[in-house]
Amino acid sequence: MSGPLHQLSGELPPPAARGRRPRLRTRGSALVVAAISTASVFTALVLVVVNAPGWERVSSAFLDWENFTRSAPGIIGKFGVNVALFTIAEVLILALGLVLAVMRSLPGPVLFPVRLLATIYVDLFRALPGVLVIYVLGFGIPGLRLPGVPNDPFFWGVVALTLLYSAYVSEVYRAGIESVHPSQAAAARSLGMSQWQALRHVVLPQAVRRVIPPLLNDFIGLQKDTVLVSFIGVVEIFRQTVIRQQATFNFTPFLVTALVFLAITIPLARFTDWLVSRERDRRYAAAVTERSRAARRGRLWGSGR
Amino acid sequence: MTAPRSSPPAAVPALSVEGLWKSFGDLEVLSGIDLGLAEHEIVCVIGASGSGKSTLLRCINLIEPIDAGRVIVAGEEITAAGVDVDRIRRRIGIVFQAFNLFPHMSVLDNVTLAPRRVLGRSRAEADEQATALLERFGLADKRLDYPERLSGGQQQRVAIVRALAMQPDLLLLDEVTSALDPELIAEVLNVIRELAAEGMTMVIATHEMGFARDIASRVVFLDEGRILEEGTPERIFREPTEARTREFLQRIIEAGRL
Question: What value of ipTM does the predicted structure carry?
Answer without folding.
Answer: 0.90
